[in-house]
Amino acid sequence: MGLQKKGKVKVSKDVKVRNGSKKYGRIGVQLLAAYCVPVILIILLGFFSYNTASKVIVEKYSASVESAMAATENYMSMICASMENKAHTLNGNENLTKYYKVLYKKISKEKDETYNSLYNDLSNYIKTTDYVSDAYVIGENGRAVMNNNRSETQIRESEHGRFKEYWDHEDSDILKDHDSTGVRNGWLGKHPFVDEVWFGDPDSYVFSYVQLFMYNDGVVIVDMDKQNLMQTLETLNLGDGSYVGVVMDKNELSMVQKVVDGQDVFEFMEEGSRFFRDKDFYVQAVQAGEKISGNIVAFEGRNYYFYFSPIDSTGLSICAMIPVDNVTAEMSGIRNVTIIMVIIGIIVALGIGMLLARGISTTLSSVCHNLDKVAKGDFTRKFNTKRKDEMRFLTDTLNETIEGINGLMKNVRGFGSDVTDSANKVYESSDNMRDIMKNICNELGQLAEGSESQAKDADVCANEMSEFSDKVESVVNSTDQMEQAVRNTLDSTHHGKSTISSLNEKTALTTELVQQLVEEIQEVIRQTDVISNFVEVINEIADQTNLLSLNASIEAARAGEAGKGFAVVAEEIRKLADESMKASAQIDSILGDIRIASEKATSSANRTTSYISEQGEALENTTEVFADITSCVEDMVDGLNLISDNMTAMLKEKELIVNSITNIAAVSEETAAVTRSVTDSISSQLDTAVSLAAEADTLNNKVTSLSDSMSHVVV
After folding, report:
1. In 246, 301, 399, 573, which residue has its Cα 20 to 30 A from 19's Cα atom?
2. Beta bridge partners of 317
3. What is the DSSP string of 211-239?
């Protein structure tokens, strides 16, 4: 009876423990709550990823547009500088000066050869230059030199001279505006008077460069090709709805880019339109005179990124307007993809969590139900599960335990007399086993913690190694790009060195030509002295003639009526002598002016020779600088090649390291899992051993009542 009371009290305590566990909730709910933590982290990761990607896209897009604008600005600057240099070269051409100052009024073979040489120079320049459409050389005297879409016959039969008419027309206003500052050139838009008189094609150009002759009696005009300029703007390709143009206060060429059926379409606005020129932000940019990059402006209800790049001091500028929507649309796509991936991640995480929680909860519920029956004495219960993890190990262990207890109960029924001895042995063995299992359980717990820590460290190391690998690959790619850029720089320096050498040779030739000009001017001075001597002789002859006329008049007076006719002849001879003396005086004045002009020209030519000599020395120094730059760039190429080889070797070795770390992490995780499983099993056996020792301790006192106690057991 006492044994039964004690058993009832113990069962009552177990019931209280089982009932008390319900207030902490089910294990499935706890697992789902635990899975909410990574779900929240996934949401935060998506949010920060989107923000970071948005910032990077805006920065990269702005940098790309700035790079494209800078390249176009440099190209346009090169075109303008080339056209200005060609106009200067034509203006200083020896054939131009010879034809328009000396040969134009002669009829000679040299005149035709000089004109044809000047025409050929202009024609060759047009043929070899894509960005120039037409060119004109127009003087007040002589024929105009042109090269445009008209035939050579029409060019040679066109009207000539008429520079004064051009100067009186508004086409030359830019030169008049600059006249007070001494500037003899400038950029303008159209020149309708030139197109009308000299067969120009208004549709072939947009902007022109003009420069006056040295003596302000002619002009050189070079037109910028419209088709080449349009192709240059198309190459920017700034996206759907973007506006771009080359603008100055006299004219502009603007276009809008659209996407039609997946194809880029470039629509150029009607020439003469004022798309950019009428915008306040353009006017403010011109007044500031500085480059503008990415300012947001409003136009027709949309926001645009505005870019403004002035082209040197030409008055031209490159303008662009890019819809902000083009950038935000791409970011919206990233946002949508991020949201979708986050939602998918949440669904997958919650689904996996629910499946795991449901499987574990179902198995544990079945185990608890069967254990409750076993606790009440039904040792025929079987523990079943479909899982193939630690739960299967738990149910198998419980089945083995129940089978052992079941066999023990059968033996107790058949061998009651041996219970006391067996109980003593069981007590001693279970006590020893309890101590040993406690030690093993503690050591296995420490081993599991160490294995888990090692697995985490290995995972962290693998991730860090992967990130390091990506950075190494990025460095390799950047090194390759840098090497290509350096090689391009090396080619440019070689080309620059060759160009400067050619320019040095031309400078030497120019020096020789200036020296020849000085000698010719000095020869003019010598011829002027000879003419002066002839004038003195003419004056002496006039004096003698005048004296002879006076003597003849005296003799005619003496002769009376017979000498009247001779007196008339004497008077005419005197008048002729007076006219000769006046003409001699005028010739002497003109010779004086020629002598002064020749002396000034000689002085200017000597100064020009000095300047050209200094320019030659500067070009030689520049050649040496290019040689030093070439040497430095070649050293840089060698260094980049060595860096690239080392980086490539590091990339090959990093794969082995990452694989090794991954294997270590996997082994550590497996070791930790097995250790935890063994620890759980030993803990379960330890509880059983403790319970068995307690029962064995009291078994000796209950042998007599064992049959009554086992009467409710089902085996």
Report:
1. 399
2. 247, 310
3. EE-TTSSEEEEEEEEHHHHHHHHHTT---
